[in-house]
Amino acid sequence: MRCPFCGSEDTQVKDSRPADDGAAIRRRRSCPSCGARFTTFERVTLRELTVVKSDQRRVPFDRDKLARSIRIALRKRPVDEDRIERIVNGIQRRLEAEGESEITSRAIGEMVMETLKELDQVAYVRFASVYRNFGEAGDFRAFLGSLDFGDGNKG
Ligand SMILES: [Zn+2]
User: Where do the zinc-finger regions (unnamed) map (predicted)?
Assistant: First the structure.
């Protein structure tokens, strides 16, 4: 399993145990290269989903890729691995509940942004700026302006 932080191929399993009432295996891993610790879950895929990309290419839904992008957005934010795993599970269940075998990458991105916006605005901006791939600074400023930093905790 490649380290999601530094890309090293050489990560070690520290601990394995059942999760989700035996529906999954939870593995704690560590990366000797950068010192990162992360958790992986092995589970049965309930249904095969196809993602339709913006250029109309079709690729199989990749849960790990989804988890990776969320984990990168949340790096060094006060959100633990279990929480991240629940977020990914929640998004996957929503996708499965849509009842369609195909889903656009855009719809998935919007779902992730919606979730992160509730959870952590820093992670939300990180994810959104990559996902929306802002071509123009003006778009990005307009987007930042749409965020509500007016209330809630600042520290
Ligand atoms: Zn690493």
Answer: 3-34
